[in-house]
Amino acid sequence: xxxxxxxxxxxxxxxxxxxxxxxxxxxxxxxxxxxxxxxxxxxxxxxxxxxxxxxxxxxxxxxxxxxxxxxxxxxxxxxxxxxxxxxxxxxxxxxxxxxxxxxxxxxxxxxxxxxxxxxxxxxxxxxxxxxxxxxxxxxxxxxxxxxxxxxxxxxxxxxxxxxxxxxxxxxxxxxxxxxxxxxxxxxxxxxxxxxxxxxxxxxxxxxxxxxxxxxxxxxxxxxxxxxxxxxxxxxxxxxxxxxxxxxxxxxxxxxxxxxxxxxxxxxxxxxxxxxxxxxxxxxxxxxxxxxxxxxxxxxxxxxxxxxxxxxxxxxxxxxxxxxxxxxxxxxxxxxxxxxxxxxxxxxxxxxxxxxxxxxxxxxxxxxxxxxxxxxxxxxxxxxxxxxxxxxxxxxxxxxxxxxxxxxxxxxxxxxxxxxxxxxxxxxxxxxxxxxxxx
Length: 438
Ligand code: 5CA
What we know:
binds 5'-O-(N-(L-cysteinyl)-sulfamoyl)adenosine; five-stranded mixed beta sheet
């Protein structure tokens, strides 16, 4: 991608209402633009990262056995009347009336709709266990939208819903999502700690929030320090028996503010291990049994032919919020430092003199060869001054920076910098390309 033909509206200064660093950097790096309180347009660079984050979430859901579908954003109010949540949900729900005076709502979550889809088609236990997920925009009319995409009104969520014949099997589904979440967040370079959590307004009695520790987090959290450094389970686990992995983590104290019990924290955790911190909730999983299947009559015939209500759970990831969380965890004074796994481009090629024929030829060769390795390349071919180009490259956080200018080229050298470490080397082009290839 040539920067001169791209759309990357960076800002010198962040607007003064952006209070936390991730919000400031998302605006300055041209990732998002606010359209209304808590509602953002995703600009090209932001969309690239959003898509990569979404893809990691998708791959890990599929690895855990969940199946993707796509439900609409608009839902019928009548469906929510069946569960009793239409009135219970309150002012956070955006309610809409169409030209036929039919009441609709912009979905804040999808328990009712997925239960309706399930009951329309599934009649026998033989289809179970089943876990269906989608990645779709939600709307919640938050009282205080703030911190950019961190607490938006319109936001992208991955929500999965599991259906099982009984509680024992539903707990296995819960464990699969629990482990999938540990793997998902680790792939984005995040350390997320599962913590006992409150369940409202989704319901149920078993629930964990996945929390990324960050000073600017909205929630106060309390946990055993050992949980933060625990190794990630990885893909090679026995997906049919995850209880020991879950037990290992849930045995240690970890709770959000609403669930915190100071006396238990002190008795269960050695003083040196007690960590009180702030955190960002990037995921939340729930087991709620028959809370929706009972009123909505989602039943299947069991092996004995008798009809039973299915046991359900739901599992959310804040896909758009994750961009804020990743930036909070990975930035410096110059800008964003994207982990390789979610970076919008792998390498930026910086042309230090865009009116110099030899430099342009060398840059174009570098771009073509990097692309031939399968790298995503941003080519800064603009006529900005070198200082401005370096500042932009640092701000937008592309992992590799390959700089080509007339002086180096005369000696057969280009400069390669790693954004994360700041480490720079001057080497021949072939060597620089080999290093990027890895
Ligand atoms: N139906 C359940 C699970 S699918 C549910 O809605 N859970 S939730 O309310 O906890 O939301 C799931 C995730 O969405 C949260 O963990 C959080 O990461 C993200 N999220 C929730 N509200 C917002 C918001 N206003 N802005 C950005 N992300 C949000």
